[in-house]
Amino acid sequence: MQRRERRGDHRRVRTVSELNKEKIQLFVEAVLNEGHLDLIDELVATDYIGHIACARRDVIGPDGVRWLVSSYRRSHHDMYVKVEDQIAEDDRVVTRWLAIRARTECCRGISIIRLLAGKQVDSLTECTDFAAGRQPRA
To answer: Which of 13, 33, 58, 69 is the most exposed place for a label (fewest CB within 10 A)?
Structure first.
């Protein structure tokens, strides 16, 4: 699927992969970094399942994502997540990211996210917690 976009007199065709990357970037910037939890219902499917190494258990649905994000933002209010690299193919987006707290790198990870109709349906995230010097969950 492709979507046409007008820019001046030029038309540019955006692929599903590009649109999916934009959705993940929006999630990172608006939801994780700025705390716009209201966007979660727009970006996360009702049947979402997240396998996230730093979480104690799988994250289920928009409510689970809302709980996880609000918990992290409460306990790490100064944390900023920076997208370092993204690769997308069809319905999957791989994002390499870095979390920074108090101007110090605290966690680095990689997430593989599958989207359907512009919403996250499942994800696998592995990360390394620099403060603990270990990977939080095997």
So the answer is: 13
Q: In the numeric block, which tokens belong to residue 4?
A: 């046409």
User: Could you read off the pLDDT of 19-73 as tens digits, one per residue?
Assistant: 999 999 999 999 999 999 999 999 999 999 999 988 889 999 999 999 999 998 9
Kindly give, in sequence order, each residue whose CB lies less than 8 Å from that of residue 69, ignoring residues fewer than 6 positions away.
31, 32, 35, 37, 40
Q: Give residue 67's domain range.
A: 2-129
* Residue 75 dihedral angles phi and psi, to the nearest 5°: -85, -20
Q: Which two tokens stand for residue 98?
A: 């870095």
The enclosing domain of 47 has a CATH number of: 3.10.450.50
Task: Kindly report the pTM of this predicted structure.
Answer: 0.84
Instruction: Walk across the sheet containing 119-129 and list its strands.
Output: 59-60, 44-52, 119-129, 104-116, 92-101, 80-89
- The structural domain count of the chain equals 1
- Residues with Cβ within 8 Å of 38's Cβ and at least 6 positions away in sequence, in order, are none
